[in-house]
Amino acid sequence: MPIAFEKVSYTYAPGTPFSYAALKEVDLAIEMGKITAIIGPTGSGKSTLVQHLNALLQPSDGQVLVLDRIITHADKPKQLKSLRKNVGLVFQFPEYQLFEETVLKDVMFGPLNFGVSEEEAKKRAMETLTVVGIDPSIAEKSPLDLSGGQKRRIAIAGILAIDPKVLVLDEPTAGLDPQGSKSMMQLFTQLNRQYEKTVLIVTHDMEHVLNYCDNVVVMQDGKCVTHQTVKEFFNDGKLLHELNIKVPNVLRFKESLAKGGMSLPEGISDLQTLAKAIAGRIKP
Asked: Would you place residue 2 in the very low, low, confident or very high pLDDT band (cuts 50, 70, 90)?
């Protein structure tokens, strides 16, 4: 069963002067096995949307289908623990949530909380540290002594250790330098391709959407205004203009070349491929 939102609305502080409708009758189906970007301006409902996937928030109206579960406003929080094992949610700046005295204990916390034996939790922790690119030799160090990028990878390892089918990431590259950001996105691609995780990424970075994602969902004013493949999305110039989307640099450069009379193949999305295409058009 796919992930689906059916007429989902969510209101913060209902019945008070501070009432705010963050989601408004959202209809959306997420393709399993893919990397889906969720984009939109600040306040558009992106984070509220993804927090419904493991029932941190429950719909005010409508229902959310996640794997084999149907979530409505009537569900009790205690009935949702099994769902949270299958949907791992990583918040923005997840390294701020590290609290154990060692890296190993921090990564083991999730599996132990879901009833896994200490031996199995340790095994999973060591394996996931390797997957996220952390040398297991630092397992006994304090996470507070590590770099920001290492802390973020450890926080993600803690989610992966519970072995979720779906990984949801809210602005996962925020605050990282360009190389750290690229490395992090490559990790998510690996988790999707090699470990078959369905990945949803809330992001403002259109370069990441273009280079690493399969599909894109655009949120605006609490509504889903479009859901397309990444290729369809970036080929729709009129829509990009209407949504005020900043087109990735490589596509803007390619468009400039086309206006100057240089015809280039469709589907080019990175500078290396573009450079080769340009070289092939230039006469010696």
From this structure: confident
Closest by Cα among 39, 27, 14, 53 to 219: 39
- From-to residues of CATH 3.40.50.300 in the chain: 3-247
Determine the Cα–Cα distance for residues 119 and 122; give it in Å rounded to an integer: 5
Q: Which structure tokens are listed for 197?
A: 């995780």
Q: For the domain bounded by 3-247, which CATH number is listed?
A: 3.40.50.300
| Mean pLDDT value across the chain | 89
Q: What is the pLDDT of residues 194-216, one digit of tens each?
A: 999 999 999 999 999 999 999 99
Total-model pTM? 0.89
Do residues 206 and 247 lie in contact, with contact meaning Cβ atoms separated by under 8 Å?
A: yes
| Amino acid letter, 222 | G
- pLDDT reading at 14 higher than 90: yes
